[in-house]
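Q: Two folds, back to back.
A: First:
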Amino acid sequence: MEIEFRPEDYPNLLSQLNLSYDELEDKIKKMDYIAAPKCNDNNPTEYLIERELRLPFFNKVFYSFINTYRTIPTQKQFIDCYFNANKEWIAYNINEAWLTRGVTQTDFNQALKNRVTRAYPSLIRDIMFGCLLAKKLPKATVIFNEVLDRDGNIDIMIMTEKDNWGIHLFTNTQRANDFRK
């Protein structure tokens, strides 16, 4: 069964960037990065954050930043925006974690910060790949859209006169596979 794909239904985030691929690459090279420790599943708070809670979507905050500022966030900006955008969720889950497990606010926030920090490089890789495809395939339309990503598991849509391709980018890890279920 063929499904009609209407690109006008999916605003292209790449068109919101005020950066060429080369400028984006240069900006990324100059950024300072925070090295997040690997998740320690033996730590109950990290296990809670990494494996049990359904965290608010990282890409929603990332895409919102691009739509607002027309550039990519630094890692610190992304972390700050994620915490700010999800204040109510964080407050509720800190309270629950404290009441049910004795998890402190400091430990919860640090474990969440570590997880958000680890998500950032993946978001950067996705958008860089989309920009690279747009540069290398000038006759194609490359679409990077939050709804396609969230609801259709399509990180990048490539459209040509003949065909459309939906690309789903993910790392083949246990966490990624668990999240996809």
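A: Second:
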Amino acid sequence: MTEGADTLVIAAGTAEGQALDALLEEDDCRILVLSALGVHPDARAARLRKLWSLEEQVRRSSRAALTLRLAPVVGADCPLWLRLRTRPRLGRDGEMVFSPVHEGDVVETLKRALDGRARWEGWYGVAGPEVMTLAEASALAARASGSRRERARGSHRSTRSASIEFRSSSPGWSISIWCRAE
């Protein structure tokens, strides 16, 4: 697949069953599936089992397809990070181990996929380099938020933004993703 090829993005809640079959039969664009780490037909979480079914449905099509299984995404304005900044009571969930991925890395991965630097087959896990507990991530998020005084002095890192727009050749199908990366 080449840069600029039409791409249909499929994710949880996009389409399933017959609706997805109809999309897959509609035209010849490539398929990008945005999924989650942990998908499996025997996963405990219903959401992960449903994502597995979606991935399988796409795999059965004859289309060029790439599946990106994302770890929890963190970054300055990501919902998970914002929630962790508040230092919520985690209880036993604080012991849960995960490898969060920074939103800037997700943007770069999407760029590589869309501009032809990735093979459009199979699936890839997209996770961060460090394993940490949810409690550790919460403490890190709280420390990273910084004080208003520090921000007024300009000690925070500068930010850059990236925007990616996915379009299908079908009229009315367009998905835009905008991320602010530190």
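Q: And?
A: The first strand starts at residue 7 and ends at 11.
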